[in-house]
Task: structure prediction
Amino acid sequence: MIPFFLMAYRATPNTTTKYSPFYLLHGRKMPLTTSENLKAKISKENPSHSQRLENLKASLRSSYKLERGANSRSHQNKEYYDREAYFRKFEVNGLVYFYKPAIKPGISKKLCKKWTGPYKVVTTLSDLNYEIVDQQNKKLAVHVNRLKPNYNPQNWKPKLKREAKVAS
Result:
């Protein structure tokens, strides 16, 4: 059952990206078996083909059903995570701090800065997700729970790329 479940999962479009994992990897839709493709070519010398095809169809149906259930459970997880989200708005081109709780090895917990920044808000991806950019122009897509406003615009000092020296 596991190979059929994985095939069903890889062929089903993700609700967030609207593309299936197979499409994102190969750039085309996965060729799936349909009822037309499963027409049994039963030979008189081996009648067991029809039973094997019926078992295959039943396995495919049950794996698609399992995958739909797993997909709906993932939506419930997202709703559970978003229920404690702070519904606040950040303006595009506004400055924010970004929460990074990870501690590098060898650094004391009390000496570690968990809020880094400032970052500039580039776009609003959804009500709860924003795209931010740091001072080296690296983009990140982050959840609103990991942001807090920066009220000091003098903190923003983007590093400019070195311009090529023109020989005169």
